[in-house]
Amino acid sequence: MHSTLSLVILLLAAAVVVSALFRAWQLPSMLGFLLVGILMGPHTLNWLPDSPETRHLAEFGVVFLMFSIGLEFSLPKLKAIRTTVFGFGGAQVLSFILLVILIATSVGLPWTAGLALGGALAMSSTAIVSKMLAERLALQSEHGRQMIAVLLFQDLAVVPLLILTPTLASGGAQLWESLMIAGAKAILVLILLLFVGQKLMRPWFSWVAGHKSSELFMLNVLLITLGLAYLTDQAGLSLALGAFLAGMLISETEFRYQVEDDIKPFRDVLLGLFFITIGMLLDLHEVWHHWIWVSITLIALILSKTAIVWSIGRAFGNESPVATRTALGLAQAGEFGFVLLAQAGGLGLIGGTPLQIVLAAMVLSMMLAPIIIQNTDALTRRLCGAEWAGRARDLHDIAIKSMGADGHLIVCGYGRSGQSLARLLESEDIAYIALDADPSRVKAASAAGETVVFGDASRREVLMAAGLNRARGMVVTFADLHAAMKILSLVQEIRPDLPVIVRTLDETDLDTLKQAGAAAVVPEVLEGSLMLASHALLLLGVPLSRVLKKLRNVREQRYGLLRGFFRGATDEDAQLNETAQPRLLSVLITEQAAAAGKTIEQTGLAELGVEVLVVRRRNIRGLDPQPDMQILAGDVLVLRGIPENLATAEIQLLQG
Predict the structure, then answer these.
(1) What is the pLDDT of residue 570?
(2) Domains detected in the chain
(3) 612 by DSSP, 3-state: which?
């Protein structure tokens, strides 16, 4: 017999190991928790008993999950996209539920079981879809926004479905009467909490926060969450509804973000335990015995959801490629589906072999989801001939913008950093073309006359259309390692001599980006700390000249490419002829170049007053190359010197 403490320790140990492994493999931790439950549950190794203690822990996981959904629930945001959320999302959920009810009744199951199954299967995975969209820079694309809107409606639909399922399980001749009573209770609770609770929540939280105690604040959050969950449970509804309402009430206060950070550790730990208990329900022997039905259910689930979402998308006026991408992205089951399925199984609406088949199909569909989303582009091109026309139109627009540009700068990303850079480039009359994957931003900026076009900078054809072969440099203005690595890989393949500057949040991935070919990496944290330090020193009475010298020294140590640019940063130096100021030049050493096979010392660049600042070689980068370093064909030398000497040095390196 396992004690409660030993059960918790075993679950936590499994959760730690699985989270570490699946994060290293870049897979959702949720799938790992499911796998732990399957392997350690009563149907396999039997290390985890299906006990009331385990189920209670899992129920708290659902409570905190619904609380988090409530925190993210914003009435103004929902109002702005209400047509897509309630129109597109509502049509998807209702259509799929009706389809499952028809199938269930045709095979002899009661319609109540079909409704419960339909609600569970209609859900898609918010965790997987949002993560994949973010990695592919598609959150602001047309299909990305529609997918997020549908997922938002599915999250909201869980609440009435959680209320409805227990009433369906009661059955009997008074079913419709029970449904009406449950609905009336839900409406009454909503009115009381939203209208009365909203007026009390802000002053109550202000009073608690006024004591400036993090422990008191955390205790108050737990009290509100569990207290409202208890009240709705006593009203004959569900714990999850109370938690959702608690999140909604707090989301309208200024304490929303602090609460979200405080509650996240509890939510993630308990939610992991919930998915472990879901895995414990799956009997691999039963699944293996009915593997044909599992396969049929899996294929039917993916194809039917794809067909329904695609049809609704087309009905809402989407082009075929957009509808296809949206449908493929939402074709899997979701984490809330497990919540609804577990509730239906516990209430006896569905059980035995059908439960095992559906549960296995849902798990497998979520495992296939990253593969499907990763290959969405190829599948869309294969299924939609119009995709080529749309892609060609976008590339044509980019090519038209960049046609007259030569020696320009390619700016990847037109957010705040990209727009600030563009203003500085315009002030110096430097040609540039900006690429951005947010159609709304591109439309607004283009209308204002900005040189920005819609395009994903991590795609080869987009970079080529933007004039990569004619460009003088590139700047990646968004802090996204995955996208930056793809861009650097393409640049190294097509234009290895092109200097690329990459923005990051901190120095965590600095070496990785440099090894991938970045000429410079600029961390926001360093620049922010330098500005804070300079202002603090000035306020403390340190002379301006000394502050500027300190900043210059730090930047020289940190940014190799700027070494020497800050020397003599005085009024006297500012009057020097610009042609006498050092500049940078990138030179690609070809196989026929005179410098190929020589050492840096043998090139004679030092006699010209030109310094080899950087040698870029695939996966090798040296900030301070030594004189005896041999130059190989394919190397890119970053030289520093005055323009006249740089021109002579380039001729000497290439022609001898």
Answers:
(1) 41
(2) 4-382 (1.20.1530.20), 393-574 (3.40.50.720), 579-655 (3.30.70.1450)
(3) strand
